[in-house]
């Protein structure tokens, strides 16, 4: 796995003060301490490319070994050209690869992950590996209830027959999908539209439905989830949502108090999302990345569960086993995250607006950014990267 985050963040206590809200509403009520703030040079492509390059570097894997590239995103940069093609170009992935993009709100990356698992299970990989990237910028309007649940970033995963981090069970998964209007991003709007409290209900229905489907598949004799898994991960639009989801899931097993199992099984996976915010497709995998970094050694050989939810909706509850040594390539994750620049609210709002201006600019900037890849602007209706 590898990851990429914008290089700056805003503290939610500062945002609360600026919006005239009690800071505890965001830090405790939502369970988020800070959110990543993308700059004008960041977009889904740059974040995906950086995360993928990071995953290849951490794994010591050459682009030539990749035969399948999928980017799950709900922050597409084009109706036709997939983010995955830009990534292929930037990283020099061979022309024999299957390259595409998937969309289903925050579930889009999981759809890509299962496509990769199926490709491998079907024996079509022929020694090649799949590169699955989740890349998104979560965006609501300034001053809206959704504002404190923004964020941005990307997580990349290399999927192969011989996993080094987590051995996923692609067969035993519980799914729940339903046509609902809880959260959406109309084609003519950059900002997400959301029926906030309804979206929470839809998410909770999905977690119950997916768990029921998993139990139906595996038979009723299984132990309760809290006894079976050493860690339980959820899609994290904000930490409190994962807390509510966990309570709903264990309640299905007849457990009325989820406090202790939340602290033991869920909280360790929320550390990283709590300082990054919502990253839509990448949120569940950011939680996994943080968990492996901080607790991978302790979890070696143990089973974990992962719940992916995408508004609209589709969700999947699946399981995996942590491979011994999984933490080794991810030791520095929290150290890197701590190096980000802290913005005040004026700085955050300036970046928010600067991204729109860069998207609308029809001529690329004069100056070349110092590191690559950076979104440079639009020339001849084509996106230009430096
Ligand atoms: P809101 O209506 O402003 O907040 O927006 P609230 O009034 O519901 O308060 C939030 C929590 O803070 C409550 O806790 C309050 O009690 C508590 P709860 O009752 O839920 O346990 N609170 C306080 N706590 C401590 N001290 C205080 C205090 N005041 C209040 N002083 C909402 C909240 C989540 C609706 C809003 O932020 C929003 O619309 N966010 C975007 C939608 C979202 O994230 N939905 C989550 C489920 S859907 C999903 O996960 C999919 C998604 O990622 C998209 C995709 O799939 O692509 C969004």
Count of alpha and pi helical runs:
12
Which ranges are low-confidence, i.e. pLDDT below 50, for 5 or more consecutive residues? none
Percent of residues in helices: 25-40%
Question: From N to C, what is the helix and strand string?
Answer: EEHHEHEHEHEEEEEHHEHHHEEHEHEE
Q: Give the terminus-to-terminus CA distance.
A: 24 Å
Whole-number mean pLDDT? 95
Class from secondary-structure proportions: alpha/beta
Strand line-up of the largest beta sheet: 1-7-6-4-5
Strand content: 15-25%
Q: Any ligands, ions or cofactors bound here, and which?
A: 3-hydroxy-3-methylglutaryl-coenzyme A
By DSSP, the count of extended strands is 16
Indicate the radius of gyration in whole angstroms: 20 Å
Q: Assembly type of the shown chains?
A: single chain
- How would you describe the shape? globular
Largest sheet: 5 strands, mixed
């Amino acid at each position: 796995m590898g990851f990429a985050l914008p290089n700056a963040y805003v503290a939610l206590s500062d945002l609360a003060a600026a919006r005239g809200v009690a800071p505890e509403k965001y830090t405790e009520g939502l369970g988020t301490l800070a959110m990543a703030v993308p700059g004008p040079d960041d977009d889904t492509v740059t974040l995906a490319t950086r995360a993928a390059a990071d995953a290849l570097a951490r794994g010591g894997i050459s682009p030539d070994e990749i035969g399948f590239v999928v980017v799950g995103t709900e922050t597409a940069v084009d109706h036709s050209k997939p983010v995955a093609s830009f990534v292929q170009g930037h990283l020099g992935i061979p022309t024999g690869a299957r390259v595409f993009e998937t969309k289903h709100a925050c579930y889009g990356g999981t759809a890509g992950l299962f496509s990769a698992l199926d490709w491998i299970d079907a024996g079509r990989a022929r020694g090649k590996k799949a590169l699955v990237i989740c890349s998104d910028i979560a965006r609501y309007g300034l001053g809206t209830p959704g504002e404190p649940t923004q964020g941005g970033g990307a997580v990349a995963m290399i999927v192969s027959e011989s996993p080094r981090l987590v051995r996923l069970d692609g067969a035993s998964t519980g799914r729940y999908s339903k046509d609902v209007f809880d959260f959406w991003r109309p084609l003519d709007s950059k900002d997400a539209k959301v029926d906030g409290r309804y979206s929470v209900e839809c998410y909770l229905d999905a977690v119950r439905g997916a768990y029921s489907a998993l139990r139906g598949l595996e038979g009723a004799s299984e132990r309760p989830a809290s006894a079976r898994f050493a860690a339980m991960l959820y899609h994290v639009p904000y930490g409190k949502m994962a807390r509510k989801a966990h309570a709903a899931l264990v309640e299905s097993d007849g457990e009325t108090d989820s406090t202790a199992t939340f602290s033991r099984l869920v909280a360790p996976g929320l550390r990283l999302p709590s300082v990054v915010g919502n990253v839509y497709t990448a949120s569940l995998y950011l939680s996994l990345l943080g968990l492996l970094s901080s607790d991978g050694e302790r979890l070696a050989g143990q089973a974990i569960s992962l719940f992916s939810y995408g508004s609209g909706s589709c969700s999947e509850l699946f399981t995996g086993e942590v491979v011994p040594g999984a933490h080794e390539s991810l030791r520095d994750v929290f150290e890197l995250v701590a190096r980000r620049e802290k913005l005040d609210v004026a700085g955050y709002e300036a970046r928010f607006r600067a991204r729109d201006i860069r998207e609308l600019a029809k001529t690329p900037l004069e100056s070349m950014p110092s590191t690559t890849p950076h979104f440079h602007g639009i020339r001849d209706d084509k996106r230009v990267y430096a």
